[in-house]
Amino acid sequence: MIRVSEIRLPLDHAPDALPEALAQRLGVSVSDIGAFSVARRGYDARKRGRIFLVYTLDCTVPDEAAILSQHSDDPQIKVTPETRYEPVDVDVPALLAQPDFQRPVVVGAGPCGLMAALILAQMGLKPIILERGKPVRERTVDTFALWRKSELTPESNVQFGEGGAGTFSDGKLYTRVNDARHLGRKVLDEFVRAGAPEEILYLSKPHIGTFRLVSMVEHMRREIEAAGGTYRFYTRVEQLLLDEKRQVRGVRLSDGEEIQTRHVIMAVGHSARDTFEMLAEEGVAMEAKPFSIGVRIEHPQSLIDADQFGPQAGSEILGAADYKLVHRTEEGRGVYSFCMCPGGTVVAATSEPERVVTNGMSQYSRAERNANAGIVVELRPGVDYPDDPLAGVAFQRHWESQAFVAGGGDYKAPGQRVEDFLAGRPSTHLGTVTPSYRPGVTPTSLDSCLPDFVCAAIREALPVFASKLSSFALGDAVMTGVETRTSSPLKIPRKDDGESLNTPGLYPAGEGAGYAGGIMSAAMDGIRVAEAVALALAGRQANG
Ligand code: FAD
């Protein structure tokens, strides 16, 4: 097949426009275009009022070699590249026949653990998945109980339970991870098989939304179980069992049971603070990692749409507009928008009692009234808090507790109008923007919930953002806090073969270990560690 990129068409083009554009670019007649498909679709919105769809298309034509040679100088016309994922080659029947074979264990059923388990199950290696939280539907009830009734279940919430932290989310699926082996494509293919819309395979900024994620996670569980995997919910790993050479020999569970295994994938996410403490006590190598904290900001989505799309705002094919904003302060700190959710809601995302944490989610339709995004400031371990692996967790906890108090002590979030925040006065009421955070927002000052340097950096950044995106000049925009769980505050480093630096048999993985930031990169890391475990079981080394 031939791949043609940079085909620009108006938003309202007819379906026939695709083969016609292909024929024109390739210098053939439309009847020469055989099968064709969309490899990628994005848009170019640099000129308001003149937004174009930008396609990359694959097609067949008679005598492809001749056409390619005619266009050999055109970098936008090429042979369609191979994007298929090739699994590592391991003799599984021989492995299973070994008398001392022990099933690999995956701790955590978030995107990383789920994908690791799926790969191991597809290979036939029968993983055991240990998840502290509940199956996803039961978990949904607990998660909504915090939002609707201020009732937190510490083991079952936005962070913990089947599907992991990404389940109640916008389900954005983009990543900038280098992907020579097409792991991202494998993840997307599996998501589509599990029920995600096919468009995620070609949209430049795909997203799924919360409701579909729930049924996808269940579908993937059924496939893993059908291939010999075993799920154990309500099962927290409380100890890693090591022999005298620090080789993993098993895990101890919250009910005291021990499972013998020599291979543990630790995919516990960035909020498993008790598990981090346990690993530190066991002497597992870990180090402090920079992360960011700040607030969530909400604007009317219609304003963002008008800013980004001008007269074409409201176009069905463009959907709700997003944004990405970055500023470097005079002091040299990065301030940036994080996890922007068009047409979504701000959610209560704490996993610990008496703490308040914000994050954002949306449904597939992205049809809610407000746009929200984190506005967060980079932190520096060793400067802003001690350079100790667990010091970032203590720092997060401190500000999350402050936010709980400032919100009124009942899981409401402290909130402030942008105009008041910039003027340095507490908000006594909110304005035209109704915040979406449940169980509610208490108008106050955010200064007590964040370090002074973070507030100063956000105060410096907001006017700069307003000069780039005029919605940010809206004084009634609401900020709620605190946004602390942007990424893991620590890293559990591993060697090239995927194992922990000092604990053979332990495979730290995903966002909690500092190897991912988002659903896609976490899921891709899950494939990497699953392959590493398969190769280790076979006595071979991972090769990248
Ligand atoms: P997690 O998803 O955190 O999964 C870890 C799992 O391990 C959890 O299920 C937990 O219960 C379990 N666990 C923890 N400790 C133990 C233990 N000791 N024993 C057993 N089980 C344990 N990313 C995006 O790319 N796009 C988005 O739109 C997006 N929106 C988000 C919205 C919200 C509200 C949140 C909270 C996050 C969002 N993210 C988004 C981030 C994304 O969810 C994470 O990057 C991703 O889930 C990390 O995957 P993971 O598998 O590494 O960890």
Automatic annotation (TrEMBL):
May I ask which residue range the UniProt record assigns to the signal sequence? Answer: none
Q: Name one GO molecular function term.
A: FAD binding
**Superkingdom in the source lineage:** Bacteria
Ranges for domain FAD-binding: 105-133
Q: Which Gene3D superfamilies match?
A: 3.30.70.2700, FAD/NAD(P)-binding domain
Record-linked InterPro entries: FAD-bd (IPR002938), FAD-binding_protein (IPR028348), FAD-depend_C (IPR049516), FAD/NAD-bd_sf (IPR036188)
Where the record annotates domain FAD-dependent protein C-terminal, the positions are 290-486
Q: Which SUPFAM superfamilies match?
A: FAD/NAD(P)-binding domain
Q: Which residues form a coiled coil?
A: none
What protein am I looking at? Oxidoreductase
Whose protein is this, by species? Acetobacter aceti NBRC 14818
